[in-house]
Write a structure and sequence with these properties.
The structure is a homodimer. With about 450 residues, chain A is α+β, with helices and mostly antiparallel strands. Chain A is built from 15 helices and 11 strands. In chain A, strand 1 (about 30) and strand 2 (about 40-45) form a beta hairpin. In chain A, helix 1 (about 70-75) packs across helix 4 (about 140-160). The longest helix of chain A is centred in the N-terminal third of the chain and has 20 residues, at about 140-160. The first copy, chain A, is globular. The N and C termini of chain A lie far apart (about 45 Å).
Chain lengths: ~450, ~450
């Protein structure tokens, strides 16, 4: 069976580096088809392979109320067949051509990709264009696949107290925005998802005017455009597919805290997440400062939190900071502390707060910042070697409201972040009224919330 | 101008007695028109007056995401006019006939009522039936009235830290249900409500098959039915008006806490709300036990909390318990403590928890329970003197999923609640994982959340 990735972007504490972005030196070409479908072509001729991706501007945060999980469910069902392809045949053909394929769903998008030999690109486009409009589903297929996503939820969420905890914290962080609902869906709503829900979400979101094509590898941009025109360009724009409408947060006026106890938790920890601005097109400076703040505070062994909480005081066994800037709407900036033996969650949290307050007082260590910037430059060079990741960065950014120019400007914006900007943004976002502090602990563990 | 009531049912700490219900001895007649409109007639011939009400099964919790406040906004706009009535003319005619009229919106319903001389009933029906289907609105009227509801929000919410606090707590209590969104709406969404939003909500919800007629006063049920048939019965059922679909809560696994600081707060307090079951048709026993639990714990001077926290220990200057059982979906059971001078919120909360724990240990005082039951019986007799309130109780219950039989059975169910049932329900619902504890305090007040 297929192994399809399910992306819990903001739920991850230790996210992959978010600064492994493209740059102006990438060989990137863009075009837009008459039906509104955008395209990005990334040339990389080192190997005769190609990555072909179609991204839809439709993630879990675009779902109607009551059918949580339908974006991800539809992602599964997209492999069921069309007028011309039988169930599972899509992936079988990719495999028969020596390729691999997969798909992923996040809050802001759903994406499909194949990695194949470069001369198979047209076949991929033909099949992907086919299922953009010709998906055929039966009641039986939907009922069977629903068992699969429920089992996926069991594995990924119900069996993992940390995931359940993350769901509870997100629901508390977002008062009105659908980022508070899990990508995979609430179980009680998933259990009722049916054929019509899937077809409705498909009809409302899948069309060339809501899609982004990303092709990366050993290709000629002019040829890609010609093929895209031939396979995707012939699909008319669907006027029923409307620009996304997202509910926004009201003023957050009150600090929230929550405690979850679960007998399966061996190691308690505290996470605080602050509501934080995301990368906005043409205005990424604040997000860049937040990205650097996360690195300075919690990135690796020499980070401020690690130094103050682990090396100097032995208060924690692990600490980190995280920020996910690539999002359509307000995102989160988080701090984590896993207390050392004999340290309570309250003590760990207090120490974390004290360390952050001291940091704001002391300012950014210039040498540390230079070191981080150097590492980011190095990572960016390595990242450009991974054409898959690069393709994914462009696709994810475009599906989250950014432009190719934003992606390419990002490395320089990151490098130009100053010590003062980092402290300024720290002062701005560390507002307890816009935060949720969560304690995860075992059933019998002591806590004094 | 009209003064229309805006009902913040569950936001009220000191709610009106929820047990002032009808009983089997009410002179109540019911009928249902062919188009699905239900009707309740309550005879009361002591004065030649009548209350005429139409309730729609459409409250703020029935709104689509992103247009919070539209149910209440439409309530205002329903006074603007129809094909035959000019703006404001509805209320002018009621007044010219010596009557008064008003309307109200809650989570589960919107209601319109007039109180007039009994011989004007037909005129009321004629006008109410008219605006059920013939509402006419202009862009200008909508924009002007939007200023009115925004000002209403200013007055009722923005100017009152307690109301803001209530909104923040509800948003934390409900993870997925729309009871977490305020009836009046989030300001940023209210600011964008337009003519089309109002017409859409009207089209989706206002029809005889989604309405309940309540007529109470000096009337003959057969005549009421004849008039109802003449004015409401001729309106066809609208198949586009569907049964309500509500998103439900996922498992609540984590205790939540929040703190709101506002410089306008002179007197800090703590409120904890637990998610609690509502009255269900044919199964009101648990809700009855919860109603009695709220009385035993927090109803008046001799309540358990008052005795333990105020008289015996001087910990608080005010304490209460509240429960709103009449609701379509899961509701809240709350505890409030306003600390005495020199007592911190943490101390007040700890004392409240200790008092509740002791109460569960000690059990219900049989004499106190008898006293409460006696008071409830007395109140029910007085309540039947207030025909308006009685009409409203029937309408509210029916619009919240209950039946006339449930309304009439309620007094006996309340009287039959035992000490053991009260303790059992207390043990069941006082589950911190399904609760939100809020602290409201001034900007500079001490707190150790």
């Amino acid at each position: 069976m297929l192994h399809r990735a399910f992306t819990l972007v903001a739920a991850m504490v230790c996210a992959a580096p978010v600064w492994a972005e493209g740059s102006a030196s990438d060989q990137v070409t863009t075009f837009t088809l008459d039906n509104g479908m955008e395209a990005v072509v990334i040339e990389d001729h080192r190997a005769p392979a190609v990555v072909h991706m179609v991204w839809y501007r439709a993630g879990s945060a675009d779902e109607p109320a009551g059918v949580s999980g339908i974006a991800h469910f539809l992602e599964h069902l997209m492999f069921k067949g069309t007028d011309t392809l039988g169930p599972g045949e899509f992936s079988q053909i990719v495999a028969a051509n020596g390729g691999t394929d997969n798909a992923f769903t996040s809050y802001d998008y759903t994406g499909y990709f194949q990695r194949v030999a470069a001369d198979r690109l047209e076949l991929m486009m033909q099949m992907e264009a086919d299922r953009m409009v010709n998906l055929r589903l039966t009641e039986d297929e939907v009922l069977t696949e629903r068992e699969v996503i429920l089992e996926e939820r069991n594995q990924r969420v119900e069996n993992d107290p940390g995931s359940l905890f993350s769901e509870q914290r997100r629901a508390a962080l977002y008062m009105n925005h659908r980022y508070g609902v899990p990508i995979i869906g609430w179980r009680h709503e998933m259990e009722k998802l049916d054929l019509q829900d899937a077809l409705d979400f498909y009809a409302a979101n899948y069309a060339p005017n809501n899609a982004i094509l990303v092709v990366a590898g050993d290709v000629d941009p002019a040829e890609v455009e010609q093929l895209a025109q031939k396979h995707y360009g012939v699909i008319p724009a669907d006027p029923a597919v409307l620009p996304r409408q997202r509910t926004q947060e009201p003023p957050q006026l009150s600090e929230r805290r929550l405690v979850m106890r679960d007998p399966r938790v061996a190691q308690p920890y505290v996470i605080r997440t602050y509501l934080a601005p995301e990368r906005d097109p043409g205005a990424q400076e604040k997000a860049a400062a937040l990205t650097m703040l996360a690195e300075v505070l919690g990135g690796g062994q020499t980070s401020v939190l690690n130094r103050k909480l682990q090396f100097e005081t032995n208060t924690v066994v692990y600490t980190s900071a995280f920020y996910t800037g690539t999002a359509l709407d307000d995102t989160g900036f988080g701090l984590v502390a896993v207390p050392a033996d004999g340290v309570t969650l309250q003590e760990a949290e207090d120490a974390m707060d004290k360390a952050v307050a001291e940091f704001i007082e002391e300012g950014v260590d210039a040498e540390q910042l230079e070191r981080i910037k150097f590492q980011i430059r190095a990572q960016q060079i390595y990242a450009r070697d991974e054409v898959d990741r690069l393709a994914r960065r462009y696709g994810g950014a475009l599906a989250s409201g950014l432009t190719v120019e934003d992606v390419q400007a990002w490395p320089d914006i990151l490098q130009s972040v100053t010590e003062e900007q980092i402290i300024a943004v720290a002062k701005e976002i560390f507002d307890r009224r816009k935060s949720v502090t969560g304690w995860l602990m075992g059933a019998e563990q002591e806590g004094t919330l």
